Amino acid sequence: MSSPWFISVKRQTQPAIRLFCLPFAGGTAATYRSWANYLPASIELVPVELPGRGMRFSEPLFVASQPLIAALAEAMQPYLAQPYLFFGHSMGALLSFELTRWLATHYQSQPQQLFVSGHRAPHLAAADTTTHQLSDPDLLQKVRTIDGTPKEVLEQHELMQLMLPILRADFTICDTYQFQPAQPLNVAISAFGGFQDPMVKRHDIAAWREHTTAEFQMHMFPGGHFFLQTAQAAFFKTLSHELNQILVRL
């Protein structure tokens, strides 16, 4: 793929289906690079690289969801001729949901399935919407409590100073998000959560059921907000099983 928005991990001439993966707050496309080793071979993994990070570090950061969704949806158009899927964790789950809505409304296109992870259903109000307003030290402490960033990264002062604007911009997107009621999606949703996630409870994950008229599945795993890392084997087994079911139906 030639677009800066997408990182091709294992390029396929005619993949059976494309899996676009959207990052959590502060995350990059690199988060998903290793996933190709765990997923069915006929799936083309396409991590999404948002502006302001990774190879796009010099580009302006988005601080609102709608302009970001509109730009991403436009960039995706050359790559949606074949069946596709969305996966998003935390902020990425919210973005993938709104992206699905946007594509249906503006491009009459939709993914085969939506995988949302580590985020409450979008109609549920956030318990705290002030994270983006925290001081730099308090914002970094908040990131430490979420426990998804390696300790050795958190201890690199210069690296964290580079990360702060990205984190603040992403938390601004999440904190200022306003859900707009609409008809449920006609897209199957699979929602994933961690049993010990202090921010997103089981009922927050279950509430995603309200946003689809198609099939809904919920999967809970041991671990906190980043159960994707701590329960990796179980997570990939579940995700691969669902992907294989989709492949059979194509």
Automatic annotation (TrEMBL):
Swiss-Prot/TrEMBL keywords: Hydrolase
Gene Ontology molecular-function annotations: fatty acyl-[ACP] hydrolase activity
Domain Thioesterase: 18-241
Family matches, as Gene3D superfamilies: alpha/beta hydrolase (3.40.50.1820)
Uppermost EC category: hydrolase
Signal peptide per UniProt: none
Designated name of the protein: Oleoyl-(Acyl-carrier-protein) hydrolase
Organism ancestry: Bacteria, Bacillati, Chloroflexota, Chloroflexia, Herpetosiphonales
